[in-house]
Amino acid sequence: MMSVKEYALDINMSVDEVIKKAKELGFEISNEEDILTEDQVIDLDNVLVINSESEEETVYLDEVTDEKDYDLEEELEDKAEILASSSNLKFDDTIKKQKLKKKSQVAKEDINAKRKEMYKNKEKLTQNEASQDKNIIIYKDGMTVNDLAKELNVPVTDIIKKLMNLGIMASMNNQISFDDTEMIAVDYDKIVKSFESQDKTNFEKFEINDDPKDLEERPAVVTIMGHVDHGKTSLLDYIRNSHITNGEFGGITQHIGAYQIEKNGKKITFIDTPGHAAFTEMRARGAAVTDIVIIIVAADDGVMPQTEEAIDHAKAAGVPIIVAINKIDKPGADPEKIMTEMAAHDLTPDEWGGDTIYVKISAKTGEGINELLDSIQLVSEMKELKANPNRYASGTVIESKLDKNVGSTVTLLVQNGTLRLGDPIVVGTTYGKVRTLKDDFGREVVEAMPSTPVEITGLNEVPSSGDRFMAYETEKEARTIAENRKEQEKLKNSKTNTPVSLDDLFSKIQSGIKQINIVLKTDVKGTEEAVKNALAKIEVEDVKIKVIRSGVGIITESDIVLANASDAIIIGFNVRPNSKTLDFAKEYGVDIRLYNIIYKLVEDMESAMKGMLDPEYEEKVIGEAEVRKLFKFSKVGTIAGCMVTDGIIKIDSKARLIRDGVVIYDGEINTIQKEKDQAKEVKKGFECGITLKNFDDIKENDVIEVYEMVEIER
Taking the model in full, what pTM does it have? Predict the structure, then answer.
């Protein structure tokens, strides 16, 4: 919602004109402070912006026309006249006005023609999903006998004969009805669907198969990842600051989460994601935005846990990796050490005969930055990145926020097609019209080509990062599709999530899956290697297990995000997640399996893959106690003075001792003492003394987790 005054400023029109038009439309508007609803804004847009002959739109139309004789000086002069005329000022130069009006009409016809051409491409895209099935024929209004013959790949005379047998006399150019098409198609074992029956709502599922002659080269989209102190931000800043001209410095503070630079006459797009989890979250939402990942490692430090995390996420995304060894200007820099450590993660340097490009850089001095950009362009050329600019735009949300002055502000990465000012658009479950379109320097533009990041306003709500977007021909169509998507989202959220789990491996294999992804976490490095080797040997019906990530330590939320994005199962060996991470896994629908015996893990995996799992028992954690103090007695052993922090602690219950996320002991509660008396159970908020059966190596701050096994139905 916005005030009449804000709306008038937004479309460069006087308040009086807006109020006048609003009253004609039946709105109860009387002054500039009155508030316009979203629907009222849309209705006014349709009259004053989209369908109007106003000279305000003339500027937009003239900007996007291909007429070469309309130079900057003339454009500024025209804009001045428009702004003045919209403020009720008079111009005597009627010849200029007539010239401008004539030009606007030509430009308007031109842009409408462009949009109609794009809609034809959009139609191809919309029907593409159905056309993947060779048994389906798409029926469109006005379809002729000859069109049907081409769809069926048979002589047109065959179709004419079949129609004659049905009592229908028709030539090759006569139109054929949907019912008659269905009757003919039956003879060829084909199913007929009308074009309008195709689902335009789930545009994420559309697989774009453009004609190769329509494809044009596009810039590579690059993401930089690595340990927090290894110079990612410094590298991004140096690349951007060193590749702008003086005239662009005014917009350098603009931060939209992505930007473009130019090198050797070609552009490169960089996306500044806040972290590995955000990168993988976008993948989990089906947003494959990155063409190349740069992993940055400090030459004076080494491979850190976050570096390993970045490698796992990049590999899971299946994109080329370039390693940037940063801080080579610092004392103690040892690039060879970094290369050795990275090679241990299957990223063998190209100079050692491997296939991973390594570049030694300094984000501080700029050394090696040009070589890094050249490497990006080399990989980009090898990938032959292309897109079709002559279709309605589609892409992904990079960032979004709510601005109290302009409403929803969204950074989009255009991945295919061309996004234009004024385009109706659906973003996730939101919709609107592109009211403003700005590049990464904050400059207003009228269109954005593939691989271009832009900031837009005009949506009715704030979408989420990773949401997909698509432009449409009309705002009515965009609104209908967005509303349908919102209903589908509600329905989806109300249903039980059914991600990959050990229970459904057999059915997944039967449906054609050939690889099972695993995220593995163990207590020590030796165990990690042993479990990985055991899993690598498992093969059932040509289906293999792939450990996409492994490591030592507690199961984290980052593991959950990666598993969700990669359809993986998490296996914990002698480790377990905390309660917060367990809740996070349930929210994402990720299956976590915990083991402490290798043969049992292998047995379960093989049985699951064969559909022969034994009855399953689920752990039910009933209580948790934190060790606050220790008491040692020669006859009794170690008594742990505890505070029950959750649930209830029961005598003879199964219990495990957890230290820093690692399971130290798994057995049973031996005794519970409350004050001076023996107790059968102690509830949350009370102190007690606990001994464990045959175990005394208890330390302060350890956690005693009490659980029971409950059989669950498969």
Answer: 0.55
